[in-house]
Amino acid sequence: MHKTETTKIVLITVAVLAVIVINAWILTNREPDILDVPETEQSDKPVPDFNAIDNVSKKKTTFFNYLRPEVEKQNEYLLSLRHYIQTLQRKVNSNEALSDDDKERIDWLVEEYAVEEDLDVDDQIAALLKKVDILPVELVLAQAANESAWGTSRFAQEGYNFFGLWCFKRGCGFVPSRRTKGADHEVAKFPNLSRATYTYMRNLNRHYAYRDLRNIRSTLRANQLPVTGVALAEGLLNYSERGVAYVEELQAMIRFNQEFLAE
User: Fold this and answer.
1) SS (H, E, C) 41-66
2) pLDDT digits (tens, 9 = 90+) for 163-192
3) Using CA of residue 254, residue 256, residue 258, residue 263, what is the dihedral sign?
4) Rounded to two decimals, what is the model's pTM?
5) Which band of pLDDT confidence, cut at 50, 70 and 90, is reported for residue 210?
6) For 128-171, what is each residue's pLDDT tens digit?
7) Where is the Mannosyl-glycoprotein endo-beta-N-acetylglucosamidase-like domain positioned along the sequence (predicted)?
C-alpha cells in the first residue's frame, strides 16, 4: 500500500473517531428533557440489611431514611410534569399553537399515563392533570413497609421491589413460592430503587383500579385541602385482596409511625 493511501486511511479513521467522540459528548451532556425519569445517586446501591437491625426504632428510622429521598425525588418529578401540563392547558385555553415538542410530549404522557388517544387535546390535558400528581410521602412509605415487611422480603432485598408489584412476562422477576396453580405472574424485579419507585407511583396514577384514589386527591385539591396519606389510602381497596382491612392497616401504620414519618 502506498504511503499516500495509508495516510488517507489514517485521516479518515481519525475523522470518524472524532465524530463518534463528539456525538457521545453531545448525548451524555445534553440538557435533560422534562420527560426524563429521575434517578437518585443512591438508587442502585445495595439495599440495607434490615434483618440485621434488632432495635425496632432504629430499623424504622433506617427504613424510612433509605426510601424517603427517592419518594421525594419522584414527587418533585411529578410536580414538574404537572406544572408543564398546566402550561399546556393555558396555551390551549388561549388558543396558542402547541409546538412540535409539546405535541410529542403530550403523546408520550398520554401513553405513559393510559389516557385515551382519541380524545381532543384539551380533554387529554384535563385527564393528565387528574393522573399526574404527587402521592403523599407517608402513604408511599407505609405501603412500602407493609408490602416488604419493613424491607426484609427477598423481593425488596434482591430486586428493589418494596411495593409488591407484579409483572407478566416470563423471567421478568421472581416466581412466588405460593403462586396459585395456573397463574403466570411474577413479582417484578427492578435494576434500581428509582425505577421501582417510579413504576409504583405511575401505577397508582394511571391504573383504573385506583381511580378512587385519584378522585379523592382531585377533590381535595379542588377544595384546597391537604392531600394526606390517610385520605388517599381510602382509594386503595383494590391494592390487596384484603380490601377494607388493608386500607385500615395502612391508615393505622401512618398514624402509629408519625414520629418516624415526620423526620
Assistant:
1) CCCCCCCCCHHHCCCHHHHHHHHHHH
2) 989 776 776 766 665 656 555 677 888 999
3) negative
4) 0.83
5) very high
6) 999 999 999 999 999 999 999 999 999 999 999 999 897 767 76
7) 125-255
The DSSP result for the chain, as a single string, is --HHHHHHHHHHHHHHHHHHHHHHHHHHSSPPPTTPPP--TTTTSPPP-GGG---HHHHHHHHHHHHHHHHHHHHHHHHHHHHHHHHHHHHHHTTPPPPHHHHHHHHHHHHHTT--TTS-HHHHHHHHHHHS----HHHHHHHHHHHHTTTTSHHHHHH---S--EE-STTSEEPPTTPPTT---EEE--SSHHHHHHHHHHHHHH-GGGHHHHHHHHHHHHTT----HHHHHTT-GGGSTTTHHHHHHHHHHHHHTHHHHT-
What type of residue sits at position 242?
A: R
- The CATH label, of 1.10.530.10, 3.20.20.150, 2.60.120.260, 1.10.730.10, for the domain at 54-261 is 1.10.530.10
